[in-house]
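Table S5 (text form). Sequence records supplied for joint modeling of the two-component complex.
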Amino acid sequence: MCGICGCGVTHAHIHDHPPQEAHTHSPQQWHAHATPGQPISTPSRQPDAKAFQARLIRIERDVYEANNAHARLNRERLTQTQTLALNLLSSPGSGKTTLLTRLIERLGAFLPIVVIEGDQQTDSDAQRIRETGVPAIQINTGKGCHLDAHMVGHALEALPAVAGGVLFIENVGNLVCPAGFDLGEAHKIVVLSVTEGEDKPLKYPDIFTAADLMVLNKSDLLPHLDFNVAECMANALRVNPQIQILMVSARTGEGLAALCAWIEARTSPGPGANLPAR
Amino acid sequence: MHELALAREMIAIVERAAKGHNAKRIRVIRVALGAFGHVEDSALRFAMLAAANGTIAEGASLEIARTIGQAWCQECQNTVILETRLSPCPRCGGVKLDVVGGAELRVVDMEVE
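The corresponding structure-token record, covering 391 residues in total, follows.
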């Protein structure tokens, strides 16, 4: 039973145990309210004019509201525990997990850190994080293409509180779908690697608009590529004039000090620090 | 295909409303979708067919009304209406534009029997 919403199922498969152990969560499901036996698709009733009279019912409901309600609860909880939550977004293969392990190596010595890993399948990213010594929960979304706030709420229940520390949420590798889903984070950070092309902010504007920081990763590869850094930055600023930009190489460590400083400056927050920046 | 998650939520919303009004069948669902909403019309239609299957909304038609996209132009200091996400400011031609409206996806109303 879901402690937040009272639902009987989880919307994703959460691994907080080694994969060989048994677990009771059901795989990806949703609340299907089927009504068997109801004549819903064939208008086969008697031609009674009154019975066929259509009624207009006003609804006016935001489709994101259910997610946003969970996001508000997550944000309240994170604010209470003074946890800086960062939602990492990128396409698959941008180097998010490697970047995360490097950040943990540097920040973990003086900041408590926990991690939520989102992937469609496998527990391997959470295992990579646990090898660094910090608690990590894997959410497998099954066919789902993004994390939602409900899944993150459940994962938070299984993680220790890290007062004054950082919760990294590594979203499903996808430059499209996670953009519209607030998870309760303080900031969305988009990671773009220089092997992906400088036009990505223009092609996938929603995710770059939603982010407060763009991290340009794999800078060590620049000598081998035609990637135009200035043009990429201009494209990101074109879709989001407020976005901040840092260039790093998780492999060589270049730029990581600045990224750590960016994160550290936002930790040990007072009440309200996990309110959305914009 | 996050439209599937959104379509499921839409169906959950209309089902709840239908129950409250003792409706037997939902014929039409109308939604408002912002010009900068994170949703593709055709993907939402396709996802809704799957999500409505076996529910009171099965067979319902989906009507999508597009609402305007708005941005704050940093250069001429005005709130302006943008046709596309990458359009320049229609007043001054500036490109430093902060999106301030048009990301919505809202169930407006429905027709039921």
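Note: The CA atoms of residues 33 and 105 of chain B lie 5 Å apart.
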